[in-house]
Write a structure and sequence with these properties.
Distance between the termini: 43 Å
Strand content: 15-25%
Structural class: alpha+beta
Number of helices: 6
Radius of gyration: 18 Å
Largest sheet: 5 strands, antiparallel
CATH architecture: 2-Layer Sandwich
Shape: globular
CATH class: Alpha Beta
Helix content: 40-55%
């Protein structure tokens, strides 16, 4: 094996557990072309246009600042659709510990802004199944489509 090939192999091998863990975590992260504040505002509008209700924003950077700590902008947006969620909550009230849905809009140390959210597969296969509920592949596909459209509209 050539030295360069060996180096690439060693680097990939060293990071393989991290790459695999990230891919299996169920988190989708997309870059935003806007500031955190503008991305959050655009995300709220985009979600409302798709029938979602915005419940609240949790500003982690403001919370950190309140105790004298500093961190880049990082806000969780909590949103849902009571027409869709309530029937599942009635079947299994404990589902409410994992829902409503959330999106994290944050700025990294280099100043880039990202939106992270749970994949539809994670929502259906992990969250719903954790509470003994099932959802069809059609529902999973629809969740994926709606979330991707809303996130893309906010980020671009």
């Amino acid at each position: 094996m050539r030295p360069r090939s060996l180096l690439v192999f060693l680097v990939l091998t060293a990071f393989a557990p991290t790459i695999t863990a990230a891919a299996q975590s169920g988190i989708i992260t997309k870059p935003s072309g806007h500031s955190v504040a503008i991305t959050l505002d655009r995300l709220e509008v985009s979600l409302k246009e798709r029938g979602f209700m915005i419940f609240t924003r949790i500003d982690h950077a403001a919370a950190a600042a309140s105790v004298g700590l500093k961190m880049p902008a990082s806000t969780v947006l909590i949103f849902g659709n009571p027409r869709l969620g309530t029937p599942s909550f009635l079947k299994q009230p404990t589902l409410a510990i994992d829902l409503p849905l959330k999106a994290l809009v944050y700025q990294d140390a280099s100043g880039k802004v990202f939106i992270s959210y749970n994949s539809s597969a994670y929502i259906v296969e992990t969250l719903y199944s954790r509470h003994g509920l099932t959802a069809s592949s059609d529902i999973e596909a629809r969740i994926a489509q709606v979330l991707a459209e809303a996130i893309d509209a906010a980020a671009n």
